[in-house]
Amino acid sequence: DRCQDGEPSEVATYKISKGETLEKAINEPLDGKTGDADKGLGWMAHRRLGNCLACHKISKVLAMAEKTPSIKVTALNGKTSSMPLGIHGEIGPPLDGVANRYTEGELRMLVVDPKTAFPDTIMPAFHKNSGFTRVHPDCQGLAIFNAQQVEDVVAFLKTLK
Amino acid sequence: MNIFKSIALPVAILVAASFAGVGALSAADGVTEAVKPASKDNPLKELWSGKKWASETTQEMQDDEFANPSGPWQAIGEEEWSKVEGEAGKSCASCHDDAAQSMKGVGARYPVYFEPWKKMMVLEQRINYCRENNMKAKPYKWESDQMIGMMIHVKSQSRGMPVDVKIDGPAAPFFEKGKEFYYQRRGQLDMACKHCHEGNYGQHIRAETLSQGQSNGFPTYRLKWQKPGTLHRRFRGCNEQVRSKAFDRGSDEYVNLELYLAWRGQGLPIETPSVRR
Ligand code: HEC
Ligand code: HEC
Ligand code: HEC
């Protein structure tokens, strides 16, 4: 049950284009989905999904946490958990203003597979389900986010101006 | 913040350390002072025991002989030492007499190359080798109270002595394998040991502070485990948290990794039994 939160097995096919700042970008939304930023924050805060806050500080989210210390997130398996918004790590750069630094297509590429931009990075690929070494049997063939979740996260990242 | 504590303590230890010399350091002293790596090939420029990033209360728990929660296991180890078991009618003490003498320094130089096996041997395996071959007794289970107790009993005889493993000669190919393991990305999260313990130590990953992932304190009492655990238990945990399939305790993979990891901490004082979150 290491991957119990409904991680999807399908990954979308996508076209990689040239980015502006980064070499690679995915300019079209995955599977033509429309993202929902509020949901995106939930996927990012969820410890077993994005867990982005474990590594990235986001001032806007810290400010939100003063009013709402945690949010309820319902994972794909239907399980609802409460996830804290106020505990941020410092392994990655703060994501404040990230939408000014990168295009939407670049942000999408970074969430799908950040190694396309930073080959040595600690940051996981969130929409990839193969090419790993010795994956735990519970997680075999699974990606962390499905296409919709990637779009939700990208929608939230776009608000970070 | 208590300025007195944060300034006065390191100075006191620095002074004590400079008089005592590395060999005489007590378990407490690996903390506030960095150790210079013995080899210039070590990717770490300075070595820190994981104790550096443990909370003050956890550090105090470790340092206080009576508050250290590994006490009961240490007592089991001492008892096992002179307990006669097996068909040969012997105990460890029959051959090794006083552990304070015979086991001094042993924990600091394991794992070693073991000729009959043509591969590396970690201390748990040496203990069981003696049980099976010299006592004709049943081996301890890897994570049993007896094994952990005996590990603490043997390794604490080297407390304060610098980690000093041999990686040349017949050990060299095993060292290379351990190194390869350390740098291999694994699991669905696709991270290698180095991603957490080489580039990011001292940084917060959520509320937790990453250490250099050093082995000098094992077996370690983890508050989370509510008991002391072996290094290979920790390896399994670190593999599984990146959603990788762990290896068995005592597997060649972990034995070689243990050798490589010991070398990364070459010079750090043995701190067994340490206490961590
Ligand atoms: C285990 C740590 C970790 C996690 C988890 C993580 N990241 Fe990252 N992220 C990093 C690091 C480190 C970098 C910097 C790139 C590098 O490695 O040099 C980065 C870079 C980025 C960047 C580019 C930032 C810039 O200014 O260049 C974005 C955007 C990003 N991450 C978004 C996310 C999102 C969204 C999530 C969760 C869905 C996430 N990250 C999860 C560690 C992480
Ligand atoms: C019948 C004799 C005998 C008994 C009983 C015995 N050992 Fe040993 N032990 C040896 C011999 C012989 C060696 C090898 C010494 C050497 O390599 O220099 C050894 C080596 C060791 C070493 C490695 C020492 C080093 O310097 O590398 C450890 C640790 C050890 N024994 C622990 C134990 C423990 C713990 C027990 C009881 C559970 C035990 N032994 C029981 C004979 C014995
Ligand atoms: C996702 C991050 C991550 C990865 C990858 C990782 N670890 Fe850890 N490790 C931790 C955390 C968190 C701790 C507990 C805090 C600390 O001591 O760093 C820890 C603790 C340890 C400790 C205990 C240190 C002590 O002082 O008690 C050792 C040893 C260790 N890791 C070794 C490894 C090895 C070897 C690998 C690769 C096989 C590895 N780790 C991979 C996060 C990681």
Automatic annotation (TrEMBL), chain B:
Heme c 1 binds at residues 92, 95-96, 130. Its cofactor is heme. It comes from the Bacteria. GO terms for cellular component: cytochrome complex; periplasmic space. Binds 2 heme groups per subunit. Its EC number is 2.8.5.2. One of its GO terms (molecular function) is heme binding. InterPro entries: Cyt_c-like_dom, Cyt_c-like_dom_sf, SoxA. Coiled coil: none annotated. Heterodimer of SoxA and SoxX. This is SoxAX cytochrome complex subunit A. It comes from Candidatus Filomicrobium marinum. The lineage of its organism: Bacteria, Pseudomonadati, Pseudomonadota, Alphaproteobacteria, Hyphomicrobiales.
